[in-house]
Amino acid sequence: MEQHQVRVHRSDEDLPRKEQLAWRIAEVAADLVPVDDEVTDMVVNRVLDNAAVAAASLTRRPVAAARSQALAHPPSAGGRGAGVSGVGPGARVSPEWAAWANGVAVRELDFHDTFLAADYSHPGDNIPAVLAVAQHMGRSGADVVRGIVTAYEIQVDLVRSICLHEHKIDHVAHLGPAAAAGIGTLLGLDVPTIHQAVGQALHTTTATRQSRKGEISSWKAYAPAFAGKMAVEAVDRAMRGETSPAPIYEGEDGFIAWLLSGPGHVYTVPLPAAGEPKRGILDTYTKEHSAEYQAQALIDLARRMRRDVPRALDPAQVASIVIATSHHTHHVIGSGSGDPQKYDPRASRETLDHSIPYIFTVALQDGAWHHVDSYAPERAQRPDTVQLWQRTTTREDPEWTRRYHSHDPAQKAFGGRVEVTFTDGTTYRDEIAVADAHPLGARPFGRQQYVEKFRTLAQGVLDDAEVERFLALAQRLPELGPEEVALLDLTARAGLLESLPAPRGIF
């Protein structure tokens, strides 16, 4: 990896284009290095993972709304159109709208892959945009693999090095440039064209973190889909010869100067050298549970505690539960956020998904976590749950913060230590570093687990024959021709989508 020093430059410094971060990203995207088997296998896993969570979300209101918007936009004249999750191969829409609808379906349940470092991300959010353009432009499965590999690499490298959340900028600001770069690789575009697309994608996808703060709304699922849609449009404009603000990262009035750490700060961004394989996807990890990633290990710990100390389930016996964890977990999904909504039994699903006190309480009492049942209003409002939930808090522990940011895989941790104080004065302590499904966890996910996740989440949504068709097709992704890539869509069981309310808007 080459380390690129990125800082603000005054306009009169005249930073050469080839030294700009957006240009360096474009060089990586245009470098069509071979993809090794391990990376290819993980791309297939991620495609299966995305399809699983998309299937489970097809009947949810935000997904239905995004799908109805997309279906109002038939294929543009430049290609074949792209598919929309659930609708089947008979329906085709313009690729940016397919990226939008499918991106919302993938993101709605907060149940796909993650990468956490200086910032945080869900790199699987890149796949809908890359796949939509591939279907529209008639590209092969091998092209799709290369595009996804680039998108993951760029997002992972940006997340390793540039923190957005400390400046209250939403994490999709790294997603837009990554998706644009991935589409550039998919289409075999040259460096100057990808450079302009990356700049436009960053410029149009920067927003504040309020989408993940306070009363969290359905926009949490829409924000990554919007970034994918903007990336498709940015590449289209760049291919037509249109340009972007530059230098977009380093400019005097650019991204770093006014939205991040400002003049004087230097970011060190690692990117693959020319000819170096792109392997960033191997550092990402998926979710076994439909909740914020920092909750994954703590759900597993709660399940273990339920078995080992059953009296912790009874609020009459518990004086307090304190979760010592990282700065990020404490301040984003813990009581350190200062959000009273995280303790509100009538809060939205999106808010509860970002409340570790709620998630830990329910996992402790139920010994399980379900993507629908665990968020149901009747579950959140159960009196004994509310009592225990209100007694559960988080605090930052410097050691867990250090491990969260460690570059050593054996040290890096996303869990915490839990201390239960009982009303009789006794205490119980236990801790966990990584989720069971993590590569270093108790039960790491492999292909078998991704297939099982797809089968489980597709139950009641897809017919058995459709489940098997998609599994067989997706697992041959590197070998697929354009006609088969066009079939990498899900078809819901007959009558399912038609039974849902059809939201109407302008389109």
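Above is the first protein from milestone M3; the second protein from the same milestone is given next.
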Amino acid sequence: MSAEVSSDRGRRHFLRDVSLPSVVAGLLAVVVSYSGPMVIVLAAAKAGHLTPGQTTSWVWAVSIGSGLTCVLLSLWTRTPVVTAFSTPGAALLVSTLDDHPYGAAIGAFVLAGILTAAVGFSGLFGRLMAVIPAPIVSGVLAGILFAFGVDAFRNLGVAPLVVGAVIVGYLVVKRFSARYAVLGALALGVPAALVTGTRLSSVSLEWARPEWTTPHFTAASAIGIGIPLLVVTLASQNAPGLGVLRTSGYPTPDRLLIGTTGIASTLLAPFGSHAINLAAITAAICTGPEAHPDPRRRYPAAVACGVFYLVVGTFGATLLSVFLTLPGPLIAAVAGVALLGSLGAAITDTTALASHREGALIAFLVTASGVTLFGVGSAFWGLLFGTAAHFTVTRRKP
């Protein structure tokens, strides 16, 4: 009886907390995920000479994994936990997948998932993250979001009508209601894109057909794919993902979050999922004030994000055509204005404490540079160089 009351109370709380802006934020997060990173997944599938069935199964697996973890973790923690498929991991596979039999690559995916779960549930990853001062994390987040803010305006020279419509829609609606500003940007931006010649692909709602591939474990695939995939996913995705939650003021139960994504990665690996992890960029869309002015009522944005992931996954790759045909300037502009609040807060936190300023600014600059070293993205190097600079400057003289 008490369980039923508790469950009903949880449902009533969610229905009370959900709002149209939070749903729009969740939708935008999914659009950003599929319009950019998914292209890299498809490129990796092509480089690995996967069949159409294997490629569709891969899309299904990462979509279902991201959707389930988004929904379950967000409802469980009442925190906007946004997960996604590993973009740097997919980039790694573009150059390595063709060097190994597909079954061996699947075995490497399983290995990376198991190790991720072990690192997460052990608390080791959380302890490493706890060493990094908060302004350094804010600097990394600011560096990640900076490119989106710049791209929103850089594309004015490419598609002035579309980008201009997005900016005008955002500012005009925000003048009256900040909650619906992103919706206003979409409301003007999409018609402007259609007027300038964009044609959305037709949607064929066909059920996805996941394909099982039996994992084969080889030393070559473990060294060539598994370990590098583990490192780049933890460093370039999970670290900044935890940082986004931390910077936004949310508790970060790292054992639960990292461990659960590791389990999801492991279970879905035989169907093609290379890695499920915490998101950073799309998380910032759902954790910012545009999702809801009250931080306690932003978790429905992540739940909505998960639901949209599940819809795309359920109907396979057919819905991808809609996301992939949306013009780049429209996506960049809407994402840019949606992230303005998060970017402003991150920049403020980066420069707030004089004692942390050098390290935080170095973290910001390294991350914003987009540098990639040894296959690891700039977010990791921003954390590393910023933390090293901080302790070098602030270390007490003997």
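Note on the second protein: The chain has one domain: 17-343.
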